[in-house]
Write a structure and sequence with these properties.
Radius of gyration of chain A: 20 Å
Helix content of chain A: 25-40%
Oligomer: homodimer
Order of helices and strands of chain A: HEEEHEHEEEHHHEHEHHEHEEE
Structural class of chain A: alpha+beta
Chain lengths: 333, 333
């Protein structure tokens, strides 16, 4: 990478920017591999997710700092969706020849900001040239207590389905950015928060860990591919049907207004729009007290009941007294 | 990915090809993240390394099965270089639009072959489209006993430097492939083994784990960026100098003959050629007995003494009674 100088120089630059390692990081970045002390009495959670230029982000719409932030956030969201707490991240950066050291610093700004918010230590990583897109591929470890794991196949008929936060904002934010780029608008106004949620997802780390710890939930997953997809996956994995009540959905108001202004059905758009990184969780009726306990400690993140798992096999949306099939899901692929 | 159909379909196809999960894989691929039981009493080793089209492989010279094999092998090599044993892998695949299901199967053939040889279980992964190169980015976990960790900074003046196997073969194999593509030759003849070592590196997993377990070594790293680079890194990290004796280097004979036929210095070419995935280890004189014990159980992998760490700060090559600077290293970047 001629513009960056040597690989070693870039790695040294990155290492110098990492905050002090926790005591559990026995061998920090710089050796063949990292060595860490596992959390006592816990199982380990492992995940990986990549953020790829042209596929997951567009440099016109997200800064490289946003890209770095997002790459860490989406992995942390997967750990939270298991009821776990993220611990260490490995960064694999694929950098095109045009990458400057300022670009690397911007990526790191976002990576370290999200890592700091979530108390995740960077354990190691890898740099490679890319002949094409810039890629931030993150692998993450976390920990979870045995019997506190939130799989997606643990739901039972009658469990209530709850979703954190609001839905549709990230998808509306991205659509607004695309439309505004065409119209050369820059002031997002009412769409400002939607744009922010596209650029910097806010994974529900505290709620996920509490849903596991309190055993309030029986099944959980994040909404990376949209709410409709998550409902389908939990129901299919749990061997149940599901009923969602459209009137209960916590649509983001600005997103709903945007979708409506574009002649779109806001319910379908919000349910199939990806990248919300909220959590969908199944909660048995008798664990409602535990759920209220999680809600009280969620620091303002709402948990909204949107329907339930059913013994009948269909997966349906109830809207205005009518039964509809669930809107067809979004796919990153 | 129109040629592949849906992301979910490809993921299901991959999951069906995975062998039965070990009991320690509590939540297998298919959920938000994997959950595993850590090895009791052990620390955990974490690493990541990517194999990128056009940068690390050329489809004219390696099959996709070779690419998959190599992606797992190079990560396992990093774990072995810490004295650890690899356990789980996460696969992040970036697939260009032209990818077919047969391509995915070929990648998996190689991935699963190396994983099976090394008893590594695929814990999870991620699929993404790629607007450019095909990328196999692997993150790997392993385990190592406390006080058995082979860092690169543990060497002391007087420690002998030993290298496994032979050097130069992978670099010579790649050079032969490039030259032969130009000349439209296909029969590698005497270069067959060099070509194989470029395509399918053979990480020294057993020797690495034994060097850690027996505490024969004080410092270790793999030769992914060439022997000269590894000597420099161990010496710099350990705060020592190093002397390498050119006459002791275990040059691969076919590689040496190839470099000579090309008018190159075979010692410099073999020392700076990357991708050998042998191990360089520093061994104190009084631990020679332990090293011989490792050698006896190495199943024929030679361990060759090539020089030593020194209290004088220089890093030098002795050749024909003359002292030279070490050849300048290879960089993947």
């Amino acid at each position: 990478l001629s513009s960056l100088g040597s690989e070693r120089g870039v790695i040294d630059h990155i290492r110098r920017r990492l905050p002090a390692a926790p005591a559990s990081l026995i061998v920090a970045p710089g050796d063949d591999a990292a060595v860490v002390v596992p959390e006592r009495g816990a199982f380990q959670v492992l995940t990986t997710d990549a953020v790829v230029e042209e596929i997951h982000f567009d440099r016109r719409f997200s800064s490289l700092s946003d890209v770095g932030y997002r790459a860490v956030a989406v992995n942390a969201s997967d750990i939270a969706a298991m009821g776990g707490t993220p611990t260490f991240a490995l960064l694999s950066l694929l950098l095109p020849p045009s990458t400057s050291l300022a670009d690397v610093d911007a990526l790191l700004d976002g990576i370290l900001e999200m890592a700091s918010e979530a108390r995740i230590a960077i354990a190691g990583g890898n740099l490679s040239r890319s002949p094409g897109p810039l890629v931030v591929d993150v692998a993450m470890t976390g920990h979870v207590r045995p019997r506190r794991i939130l799989r997606r196949d643990g739901g039972r008929p009658g469990d209530g389905l709850y979703v954190t936060g609001t839905i549709g904002a990230a998808a509306a934010g991205l659509e607004w950015l695309k439309a505004s780029a065409a119209a050369q608008r820059t002031d997002a106004g009412a769409m400002d928060e939607c744009v922010r949620r596209h650029r910097r997802p806010n994974p529900r780390l505290r709620v996920g860990a509490m849903l596991g710890r309190t055993r309030a939930g029986t099944a959980c997953m994040d909404l990376s591919d949209g709410l409709a997809d998550a409902v389908r996956q939990i129901a299919e994995a749990s061997g149940t049907g599901a009923t969602i009540d459209a009137s209960l959905l916590p649509l983001d108001p600005a997103a709903a207004a945007w979708f409506t202004s574009q002649g779109r059905d806001p319910v379908a758009a919000a349910m199939t729009g990806g990248d919300d990184y909220e959590l969908l969780v199944a909660v048995p009726r008798k664990r409602g007290g535990r759920l209220r306990g999680v809600q009280r400690q969620s620091r303002g993140v709402p948990l909204t009941r949107i329907g339930e798992l059913t013994s009948e096999p269909g997966i349906v949306l109830i809207r205005g007294g009518q039964v509809e099939p669930l809107p067809t899901g979004f796919s990153h692929f």
